[in-house]
Amino acid sequence: MSEESSSSPWWNSKRLRLDDSCNNNLNTTRSSEPKSNEKWLCSGDGTHVEPEILEDMGVSMLEDETSCESTRKSQSLRHPLSPPNSHNDRHCEKVNSFEKNIYRGSTFKAVGIDRLEQNSYELDEPAAYSTTGNESGYSSKMEIDNFIDTKESFCKSSLNASSERSSLEQFYLSRRKRKSSVVGEDKFNKLSDEMILMILKWLPKKCLVRSMLVCKRWCQIARDEALWSRLDLGGKVLSEGTLGHILPRGVQILRLAQAEIADPVFLENSEVFTDGYVSKLQYLDLSMAVLSPDGLAMLLSKCKYLKKLSLEKCIVSRSCCKAISENSDLEILNLTMCDGMDVECLRDLMKLKNLNAVNMSWCSLDTESMTLLCKSLPPSVTRLNIGGCRKTMTDDNVKDLVNSCPDMVELDLSDCTMLTMNTVRNLLDLTKIEHLSLSRCYGIPPSTYLTLAYMPSLLYLDIFGLMSEPILKTLQVTCGETQLNKFLYSSVARPTVGVRRTSIWGLRVRD
Description:
The chain has 511 residues and is an alpha/beta fold.
């Protein structure tokens, strides 16, 4: 029989199994078949069975369409037996593709497109979802109960998923209201910006900087130009880029005397490097400040509206003098004891035609520079100090100076030891001179000072180190209203005189 079964076609075995399932002769069929013939993967669909076989089995084809559909449906939903035969596997895959489902193993796993679109658990036949199939092809009562439980759990899970989806669609972010750090009523919110500005005006600059950290409104008000028009940083140590934060606030009067300014003066991201930026500085005091020539040149290059400038005891360069010459409104220039002055620097400085007071004492000018200075000074200069030129200032230079500046009011030629009596004759041409200083000019005879004392416009004559005290008293009686040795130090173009440290050139630097 094994030979006949192996050589017989597949429909004979199919017919045999169908006969056995209909006659309920399962035991005889299983014992007569070989062990190699196992369960089939394909479903028991009647459409794949020949009509003659069905007639032999006593099954007649129903002509009613509804009954055919129900029969076809019930047959397709049965879970068949599957042998591990590759030929049968390929045949089952074709059948499953026809039903638009994929069955894997003995467990029911459907991935059909049409079955997913409609709820597959809503079908009326519970036998379609049995997890295991018996040999007769019918589902047991336990399988039906499992199906009902699975259907209920699926309905609950689908409801939970739908409720979760709806809750996610309604989800939104909300910002928690920030608690106010102010306890009680904030009365500053009721005040206008002008009122707060008047209040902040009474604060020192250190407290004014701290007030910028309160809120954005205060930061904007505290940066107002009315609060930063004058600033005193004398004797302070300024870190890199500090001036880059200060100048854009609209400072007009700035005192940096004896301050230490680190390089670079301005950082790369500073506001001063924006296109078209020009500082509003008009009064700048850098007397005895510790600053490099490059840093000084960078600072002066951003200043175009300077009116009074003091660089006493600073190191200057050609670029510094060129930047100074661009301030056409400059009136007062103090370069006392500055190093680095040469002819090229003086050529740039002589372009300033509105100078009123100039102090270039003890600058170690050479002969060429001194000649250029005396011949090129603008006639607007009325106060001049070029003392300390012991070997470079001559009588000819004084003559050129008198011709260049005939309206001189104050002149200091102290410590110019090369001057002689001819200088006194030239000075007599200054009809408006009020203050003259010739201290330690040892080349001028003491008797000639009596001639200067009779000048009608002269009020003060300083001749320290030339006469003894008794002779001075006698000369004072002879001179009449002209006072002798009234001022020990010259105040020409200097920002501060005496012990005053709260103002420069008579302007307050502290509020």
